[in-house]
Design brief:
6 helices, Rossmann fold, binds S-adenosylmethionine, single chain, 7-stranded mixed β-sheet, alpha/beta, 25% helix
Length: 241
């Protein structure tokens, strides 16, 4: 597990390794800090807390476009992914979806994520260490089409041409196992959905999840006028035979 600390005050949080952590009001010496300690800098107080998985994930390096937490959470909400699940994911990109799933399946489970490009493979592998999940999430530098893992509970695909992998995925899933295809464009979802229907998946659903943050400023409360308006579509279905 990474030795990172989160310094929190009323305004914001600062994540850093044990030692000197820079904040908006100057450096804080957290060399000997314990969780719950209160440290001072620039006339402000910070409490030292253990970062959550989401604190760590949000601080990870981003290369390729990530699957956002609202969409990753939806994958878990619909499939019921949990402790001990065996998952395959491709492409890894920055590893965000694979790591989110790794956090959910825990040490009893396994997520194997495939990435073709060396640059993204390195980012995803480094992010797995930052999140303390390198024993759960294995990053392989290879084409997702070459995956060999079997008896899977869940396969997630965030690559072009996902529809061409549907038949292979079906053969490698357990009965009742899930395939989830993610894409920013609906054309790919239409293709994936058709391929899943052809392959005999059941309960096929296409979802777009919208999340709108509200601002609340002294009695003027309303939805934010800017933000992430569209991320992607999910098509989810279960293997029968
Ligand atoms: C949009 S990103 C994936 C982001 C990832 N789901 C995340 O949450 O961070 C797509 C990635 O798939 C990789 N990729 C594309 N085709 C692939 C393939 N056939 N096998 C493995 N990786 C592939 C790309 O290099 C890119 O890094």
């Amino acid at each position: 597990m990474s030795d990172l600390l989160l310094l929190l005050n009323e305004e914001r949080g600062f994540l850093g390794a044990r030692g000197i952590i820079n904040t908006h009001v100057g450096p804080v010496d957290a060399t000997d800090a314990r969780f719950g300690d209160v440290l001072q800098a620039g006339g402000q107080r910070f409490v030292v807390v253990r970062p959550t998985f989401m604190d760590l994930l949000q601080s990870c390096r981003r290369g390729a476009q990530i699957v956002t937490p609202k969409d990753a959470a939806q994958v878990v909400a619909v499939t019921g992914a949990g402790r001990g699940w065996r998952c395959v994911d491709g492409g890894a990109g920055s590893g965000f979806l694979a790591l989110f799933l790794g956090h959910v399946v825990g040490p009893e489970g396994r997520v194997t994520t495939y990435e073709q490009q060396e640059r993204f493979y390195r980012i995803a592998a480094r992010n797995a260490v930052r999140c303390g999940l390198e024993e759960v999430v294995e990053v392989k530098q290879a084409d997702i089409a070459s995956f060999t893992e079997d008896h899977l509970d869940l396969v997630t695909l965030d690559v072009k041409g996902a529809e061409l992998l549907v038949d292979k995925v079906r053969r490698h899933l357990k009965p009742g196992g899930w395939l989830v295809v993610y894409s920013p464009h609906v054309e790919q979802q239409i293709g994936a959905r058709a391929a899943m229907q052809e392959a005999g998946f059941t309960g096929i659903t296409t979802l777009e999840t919208m999340q709108r943050e509200w601002r609340s400023l002294g009695g003027f409360t309303r939805p934010q006028s800017k933000g992430l308006l569209h991320t992607g579509f999910l098509t989810l279905g279960r293997k029968v035979f």
